[in-house]
Write the structure tokens for this entry.
Amino acid sequence: MTRSGLPSPGQAEADLDTPALVVDLDALERNLDRMASAARAAGVALRPHVKTHKSVTIAHMQLERGAVGVCVQTVSEAEAMVEGGIRDVVVANEVVGTGKLRRLASLAQKATITVCVDDAGNLDDLGRAVRRAGSSVGVMVEMNTAEYRAGVPPGELFLQLAQRVDSTSSLRFVGIQAYNGVAQHIRDHPSRQAATERNTALVKESVDMLARHGIRCEVVTGGGTGTYDLEAASEVYNEIQPGTYVFMDADYLANRDRLGGPFRDFEVSLHVLATVMSRRPNIAIVDAGLKAVSLGNGLPMVKGGRASYERFADEHGVLAPVEGPLPALGHQVRLIPVNCDPTVNLYDHIICLRNGGVEGVWPVDARGY
């Protein structure tokens, strides 16, 4: 180990301190290649969402495979990406507040920045901030896709806001943000497809309505890991924004494919490596609890399925047997988070593994933002 406590290249996985966030580079690279190939084949742009990995290194890997830019969720994520050399960033979210708007407008002096709006007052605030900065910001009007999500409902309100963007001198209307987050996690494929098609029909109506009023939608964007193929084939969306595909997680593994089998378009490349620190009859206690893996959406899976993660505390997780004996004291296990995004945000670094050893260590550049 180096003085910083980080592993050195060549160090064996078995010698890593735990808990540790590890990525299998071979699986990660295959995931990146598969999504890039799918977007190319469908003739749509790929703009991956980096809130999943928060890594400038991975963002550049995505750009090298043909991505047109990246999506972020916050101004701070945008700043981390631009500082890391990414020059086309969409904030796929509303930005509210004087300080954040000022930072966003300033960032647009260094890179192509686009942001979402769903409110006329916020749009006016954005326009003023951009004029003061002397920059230019692109604007996507976000279309509401489900209850409890941001966005403007399709129809007259959507048209009015788009017209207001189009008439604001310091801003440029780019298109429609229509990410159907709810559909990503509908388990069976026919229901997931039906929900996506309903949403896509509303998006098309909005595109056509804007065209009738002389407003061109340069970009119609959305689509996540669960529905990327459906939006890509829709002939309405011309850009997709998947994020989780780089790592995958237990939640997406619960989806079913077109034939009713497990959703396996992409591989699990990210794990939380943990060590058995205590053994008692019928339980094994590992050193990965609430501070090591996000538990907001459920308990993680244990890779291999020979044990189940049953309980947790701040620093501990309790494994129960499923098939065969539990791992012995000192043995390592790999956990698959239910939600990889907030799990990554718990760590400063991702440890990159290939062939059982450390190949590199990447900072989580946008951690905590």
